[in-house]
Amino acid sequence: MTDRFSAELMRGSLDLMVLSVLAQGAQYGYAVQQTLREATQGRVPLPAGTLYPLLHRLQDERLIRSRWDDSTGRRRKWYELTKTGQARLNAQAGQWFAYVDCIRGLLDASGGLRPATA
After folding, report:
1. Greatest Cα-to-Cα distance within the chain, rounded to the nearest angstrom
2. Can you list the alpha helix ranges (DSSP code H) found in 61-110?
3. pTM of the model
């Protein structure tokens, strides 16, 4: 499936997505993009112009930290989750699961709506 999610649907969840990728371990920016793209089957393409300001904001909020590394022969900035970031991820994930359950319940109550098939 390659359908992309609407910008409205993704608004407010990009932080959660990036934090969840970094919960898997430290990554540099391009790797975050690729991991997110693969995990979402291409439905969440996160352009650099969106990703890097988001990473800088998360760092300013002390949810992630960064370090430069050139051990691979290429200087890259690696990002990793902080304890505060892990706590935020846990809280947001709990809210997201509760929200999904709420929406699913509403859709089921309205006649068992299911995704359209092509």
Report:
1. 57
2. 83-109
3. 0.84
Please determine, for residue 98, whether its predicted confidence score (pLDDT) is greater than 80. Answer: yes
Distance of alpha carbon 49 from alpha carbon 110, whole angstroms: 39
The token pair that represents 98 in the structure block: 């509760």
CA distances from 73 to 32, 52, 56, 69, 78 (A): 19, 22, 24, 9, 14
d(CA 67, CA 26): 10
Under 8 Å between Cβ of 66 and 77:
yes
pLDDT digits (tens, 9 = 90+) for 28-83: 999 999 999 999 999 888 899 999 999 999 999 999 999 999 988 899 999 999 99
- Tell me whether residue 67 is exposed, middle or buried, using C-beta atoms within 10 angstroms of its C-beta: 0 to 12, 13 to 18, 19 or more: exposed
d(CA 35, CA 25): 11
* Residue 33 CB-density burial (10 A; 0-12 exposed, 13-18 middle, 19+ buried): buried
Dihedral in degrees, nearest 10, Cα atoms 102, 107, 110, 114:
-160
